[in-house]
Fold each of these.
Amino acid sequence: MPSLLGEYGTPLSSKSFKLMFLGSGELGKEMIIEAQRLGLETIAVDRYPDAPGMHVAHRSHTIDMTDSSALRNVVDREEPDVIVPEIEAINTDMLFEFEKDGYFVVPNAKATWIAMNRERMRELIASTGVKTSRYGYASSQDELLDLCEKIGYPCVSKAIVSSSGKGSCFIKGPEDVPRAWEYAMKKARIPQERVIVEEYVRFDVEITALSLRHLDESGEITGTFVRPIGHYQIGGDYHSSWHPWMENMEDLEEKIYGYAEKIMNALGGIGIFAHEMFVNLEKGEIYANETACRPHDTGLVTIFSMPSGQSEFALHVRAISGIPIHSEDGILNPIRTSASHVILSHGEGWYPVFRPSWKGFDSMILVFGKPQAFQGRRMGVALATGKDVETAKRNAETVAHSVTLEIDGRNYLQELSEKHALHN
Ligand SMILES: Nc1ncnc2c1ncn2[C@@H]1O[C@H](COP(=O)(O)OP(=O)(O)OP(=O)(O)O)[C@@H](O)[C@H]1O
Ligand SMILES: [Mg+2]
């Protein structure tokens, strides 16, 4: 891998160190801001103009990232030192080709190829011996019914290639099977003949465990772990996250770091890994769900909770640039209890106006800068601190729900569900 352990030139000069981001949404934007601070040259790529990362990068390209010749074109034109996938919907065949040509793909092409497909990722996790929900695969509606009977109800079916809950179904009983099959076939990102079915895990809290494979001061690869983040989901997408996930859980945290280490080492390469896990507190059980080889949306909270230079975005950029990351005991801890709460669009149109009414908390609103709003699209996030997790969560929720979005002359408030504290 190329590394900043040596020397590097000024951005925009012939000796600059160039990072190309494939996908430049809100996560790409934060990575680019961190890269800019370090004096790296940044190139944002996305499928639409004025994507969030394009607002802060040195240059940008608007292409279809599933199109091999478009990708080949921008990569050969820019000759980046590092190619940083920000999303899974990329032509992964090309990532293998770029790697063969000598480009450094983060964390490596194979890991990105594994992470875009639930079956490959589940098999990788299972091969490490880390606990997961019971699962199996079905390639017809009849097989799906047999599998559900075997795994037991309720269970969850998911399209093999999809994200944000698209193509996933909660199956209460045999009567739900035809709908689940049809839905998975319709919503899969790449038409596949199979679906995965998982046992429904009864968990108390969902977490994201961030782990890093990075270089130490002597240039050796080593592992570092970030104290886990807690989060909840609404409609298949993350809605709120908090850091740390809980207090006084050292024993469980040891187990979580052990799982994260096994999975990230099996994936290999360099960078941050975000492991989604379910925790059953009573049984002391952790179940690995899936791992992303990049910063995670629930990790936006680390902008507020972690010291400067240790947000998940800063850590990823430092790791992939070969910059050593130091910690006393291999664990990076938040310095203040914080939470994030998403700001969604409930209308459709261009260039929304944000109207926050500040609540007097230690808080901040990140506006991603997406030019177009549509139903359910994440447009920003509120970050807040609190004396404990519950207070931080409530503060972030209060701030997010104080925002009115004006779109095409109409005003939209944030919707409440029973998962919100403000609902009660
Ligand atoms: N086996 C399971 N048991 C219980 N809940 C589950 C299970 N699988 C998924 N869920 C719930 O559904 C959410 C989304 O599942 P998952 O992460 O597997 O799908 P996804 O489409 O990749 O979503 P995303 O892209 O947002 O991560 C989980 O965060 C969890 O809340
Ligand atoms: Mg997930």
Amino acid sequence: MIPRMTVKTLVIVSAACVGIGVGIWRLGSLDVTDRTSKPAEALSSPIATATVEALPSAPVRKSFDDLLTQYGPVPLADAHNHDASDFKYDGMQSMWKRDAMDRVVLFGDVSESSAIRTDAYAWEAYKDRPDFFVPYFSGFDLHDPSSLEVVRKNLEQGYFGLGEIAAASYYSPVVSKVEWKAKDPMDGFLPQIYELCAEYQAPILLHMDPPNGFVIDKLEEALAAHPKTTFIFGHANAYNSPENIKLLLEKHDNIYMDFFAGFTVLNPESTNRIEDFLPVIKQFPDKFMLSTDSGFGLASEDAAIEAMYRVLDAISDPALVKKVAYDNLDAILRNEPATKTQKEAIQKLNAAVDVTKLTKLEAGKLLWVK
Ligand SMILES: [Zn+2]
């Protein structure tokens, strides 16, 4: 095991170089394992304390309650949440209410057979609260042609997107081990899957590590070859630099950034502070959305939600806060039309409903709101 201080120093040195390839992710990943197994120690380490103290806002740090008072009325969506696993969402309802959460993109396991089950849990949650949950799915083997049937069937049924899909994972202690992961974002049937996403105007949320080198070259190939597909770069800020994100956004219109607030705000391994990302967020005001990643690697999911509010507070401009907190993701979801299957089901319930211009969001509410 590399001593913590050495890791940190190496990461800083690596970040200063151009085109460092996999360095950041590898060093970071080593520490993710360590942090996951000993969260309390990691959070109370001298490095963690130093990082928190280094934040310019630290001396006048607002409490979570202050932030809730200030930003609670602004609609807030979590764009990346795994709480379908083990029905965790059942126990989250009061926290979401207290933390003024308005929408959760819900899925469970990532690109493995157990995801078939957790996809079904996400669907159940959605049927129960169609105004709150947005179900995604990832239970298909992207190396098998049957994946195309699953993707079409689920999108037709009413799922809003695909995620979290392991489009490449070489260092994540969890995702690198999943059975259906892709080698890169053009592997297996992913190209045909991207076309299905375009047909349904459904976004696809990709996990990619390392977030540089050949993995991103392949992502760029996918972005160029599938211009009508909406790609979301999962936890784009994790072990990644604002410069890399900026380059992608400058080159491609069809990529959006899922910003895992807790990583930058709370994870001592983040080499960038929220302030470092503000210029690119301001340059691309329509491209960022916030997420908790269910608090992966953090003390709690509550802490991950608090971090979302801290990002909003750092953004501060009310119009941009509104976009990043909710509207950017909402615009993608609103763009999805109701499917033939949904329209038929609605007309079966009430033949008088005009379904011609119905969106998927509206269809879900007509079908499932009690
Ligand atoms: Zn995730």
Amino acid sequence: MAEPVTDANTGLGPPALDHNDGLVRICQGDSTSLTFLQDASVNLIVTSPPYNLDMAYGDYRDDKPYTAYLKWVERWAEELYRVADVGGRACINIPLDTNKGGKQAIYADYIASFRNAGWSYHTTIVWNEQNISRRTAWGSWMSPTAPFVTAPVEMIPVFYKEKWPRKKEHRTPTISRDEFLEWTLGIWTFAGERPSRFGHPAPFPEELPRRLIRLYSFREDLVLDPFVGSGTTCAVAKANGRHSIGVDIDPGYCKLAIERCMGVYPHGPTQWFESSDRLWLTGAGPNQMSLPWNVALPVNPVADVTVKPAD
Ligand SMILES: C[S@@+](CC[C@H](N)C(=O)[O-])C[C@H]1O[C@@H](n2cnc3c(N)ncnc32)[C@H](O)[C@@H]1O
């Protein structure tokens, strides 16, 4: 019998790197093919995909021709639709438009791609990021010849699978009255995140997944970020008592996400090393963890993660 294919980038077989601490699961994998996730298993997707702006991500080339980029978006939107439960929601943080290779109405194109993939459109939240550094490209100064208008906002279109209302049943909402009143007004104002804070080129701020998770999910729900990067969504989901899964194609970002979700980044120092079938993470934890620790991550097949005090 042929050996199962296990390379994460093929999308076949189990993920190459798979860490599960009971609340957070971080997997190295390709989100166009999440074969390690079951159909209809996810309640809320919160993510920020690559924007095709030639960003220097580790393993991923962020510079596709625009039409190829949109085809790629449709592929992972279809895969997210498969893993979403009925009533599942998808909140996708994207720009309003992009300028690379000519002006593109990327937000409008995402709505079309997601609809093609089966999703229904619900609403859009405008994130007023107030990034004034973008106010340098005026085009023609004080002349109608070719002025540029730039909106310092990002968009969060919200989609759902088949039906919008969900039954509460035995599930627990965790949003407060004041949060609900403030966040159901669809212009959200808070600052972006510094890339230097977590060692990833394009993190979003914790406030973004925090609001989306508390507004759109129950505590018993499963949250997925298919482009988890430095692990922001999963760290916030954990802080809010939700189970979550984070997927990234880059093993370095997966390790970063694991460290962050375990609460050891940026407390370090930490070190990763490999044995024949395991990845080991060692280091001293943050102050409230009294013991140094070792963590063994199964490389394949998936098994329990061992956390034990160092000798
Ligand atoms: C905009 S970043 C996400 C940042 C994240 N929100 C955070 O706060 O750190 C996009 C991520 O998508 C990852 N990526 C690119 N292609 C992917 C794919 N096919 N499957 C999974 N992850 C992918 C990149 O490695 C990158 O870390």
Amino acid sequence: MQIIVGALLIIVAIFLLLVILVGVFYAIDIFLDLPYVATKRHKIETIIKLAQIKKGETVVDLGSGDGRLLFAAAEKGAQARGYELNPFLIGLTLIHTKLKGLGNQIEIEKKNMWKADLKIADVIFVYSLKKSIKKFEDFVYKNATPGTRIVVNLHSFPDKKPIKVKDGIYLYKV
Ligand SMILES: C[S@@+](CC[C@H](N)C(=O)[O-])C[C@H]1O[C@@H](n2cnc3c(N)ncnc32)[C@H](O)[C@@H]1O
């Protein structure tokens, strides 16, 4: 009987811990400009196609989530840098980077993306909600080097004309 009660207590404790962790994960989102929404596989393919990444180019993802775009860019030979504030997602990216052996190509900065160094980027990935798309447009056009390709997921920049559009992904050149 004591063993059953002990086992039940452990199960309840693990369940509560999971609930707390999931709660903290989503609570972090409340304080950020963008919630965590991962880009779907078919969209990643379109993003990578539109970006036309060449070996050795530098790619920056503004809000890199679990790092999936960084990995896709690294597979094309890029140096990929992600800016992310959610510690769970940073941890996940670091684990996958190690497992995939991409430590020399992927860098993850626990830093506010509005302080990102865009001068180093040949390609920038943006995933924005409607409310922050103008802020991204101004930020990128003010800080990136002329010629930088910007690949925007979900909403188009309000005041710039894309070079290409496919499956709700927009390609711009600064
Ligand atoms: C819509 S998700 C995109 C994730 C990833 N780029 C993808 O395409 O799968 C936005 C990410 O930005 C992060 N984020 C939101 N505000 C941020 C900020 N100010 N600085 C850095 N990261 C931020 C969130 O934690 C979230 O992971």
